[in-house]
Amino acid sequence: MPLQMAPRRRGKPPKHFADLTPAERVASVEAMGEKSFRAKQLATHYFTHYTSDPEQMTDLPSATREAMATTMFPSLIRPTRTLEADGGTTVKTLWHLFDDAKVESVLMRYPNRTTLCVSSQAGCGMACPFCATGQLGLTRNLSTAEILEQVRAAFRTLAAGEIPGGPTRLNNLVFMGMGEPLANPRAVIETVRTLVAPQPEGFGMSARNITVSTVGLVPAMLKLADLGIPVTLALSLHAPDDDLRSELVPINTRWSVDEALDAARHYFEVTGRRVSIEYALIKDMNDHGWRADLLGEKLNARGRGWVHVNPIPLNPTPGSIWTASERAVEDEFVARLRGHGIPTTIRDTRGSDIDGACGQLAAEEDDE
Ligand code: SAH
């Protein structure tokens, strides 16, 4: 797969209430000839009650309710299939977008928290050979509202008690679905702003519970540091040496391991947020003891206490010859990193039986 930094030109999804800033929401309500306070009512329906259904907006005048809702909340994403695992506590949803582009999101409920994994692009241009999404190429960037609609759906599902365990809230959000979030920085940053804005201006999430995961687009990492919203940054490293990383994460030919790590360290310095290093353990590819040592050294060379490593056993993807490392090799890799004083935790991987785990999202036509 060739690297693709920019999507092919496609039509834009319709503008949606969730694309707008609070001031723009007021302006567009007024442009419809409505009173400005209607914007707050609409925001409350959307961000507090998670609904865009005019039937439920009984505090709006019945004459204009329908028109307001259909103008402000055009249908952007339509669920066409859900798959469940873990007794219904892991749910993968396939969404069709207005132009028939497809993305997936995965909702995971744990005993004491809930996490949504969202897509920020249809497909991905980063071409990592071990990732199913990377094999699709990039279709297009999602709009802010297309991302936020995935989030609203998760809040609504959880609030409605549709996931076993009783009604609850969404606690965590990870940009680890389809796409490279920092290749779609404008929409992703706007999404983050709205995620953390207090209800009813936004979803009132905590920045530290939002993780932006990147292959290492250095300029965008530096910009994210200056955003002033201390989300958690995850860097998908997968190898500590340029030779191998350029094969596994092709963008490494543009920004090297050292440059990506420097940007990650900078992120920590500016935000005070400990950075995560993602490392898919691939049998006989990147799981050698010396690579764990080299990674430990490179991280420590940039200071202590600023980073932790999340190794994850490779999830299988169609057509790939690679497999996960042996358990003993994984244990040794973790032990070596810890030996360097690096906090290291094997990432829990959910949903691999429904192709919903890291690197398995492909939104295939024939899945339907
Ligand atoms: N493009 C961003 C966001 C995707 S996050 C990024 O790469 O960071 C998905 C995470 O799962 C990334 O860390 C990615 O490298 C990892 N991943 C991809 N394919 C995988 C696979 N087959 N097994 C395990 N992890 C994988």
Automatic annotation (TrEMBL):
One of its GO terms (molecular function) is methyltransferase activity. Gene3D superfamilies: 1.10.150.530, Aldolase class I. Residues 110-353 form the Radical SAM core domain. Its EC number is 2.1.1.192. Its main location: cytoplasm. GO terms for biological process: methylation. The active site is at E104 (proton acceptor), C358 (s-methylcysteine intermediate). Keywords: 4Fe-4S, Cytoplasm, Disulfide bond, Iron, Iron-sulfur, Metal-binding, Methyltransferase, rRNA processing, S-adenosyl-L-methionine, Transferase, tRNA processing. It is found in: Cytoplasm. It catalyses: adenosine(37) in tRNA + 2 reduced [2Fe-2S]-[ferredoxin] + 2 S-adenosyl-L-methionine = 2-methyladenosine(37) in tRNA + 5'-deoxyadenosine + L-methionine + 2 oxidized [2Fe-2S]-[ferredoxin] + S-adenosyl-L-homocysteine; adenosine(2503) in 23S rRNA + 2 reduced [2Fe-2S]-[ferredoxin] + 2 S-adenosyl-L-methionine = 2-methyladenosine(2503) in 23S rRNA + 5'-deoxyadenosine + L-methionine + 2 oxidized [2Fe-2S]-[ferredoxin] + S-adenosyl-L-homocysteine. Its cofactor is [4Fe-4S] cluster. Reaction proceeds by a ping-pong mechanism involving intermediate methylation of a conserved cysteine residue. Specifically methylates position 2 of adenine 2503 in 23S rRNA and position 2 of adenine 37 in tRNAs. Belongs to the radical SAM superfamily. RlmN family. This is Probable dual-specificity RNA methyltransferase RlmN. It comes from Isoptericola luteus.
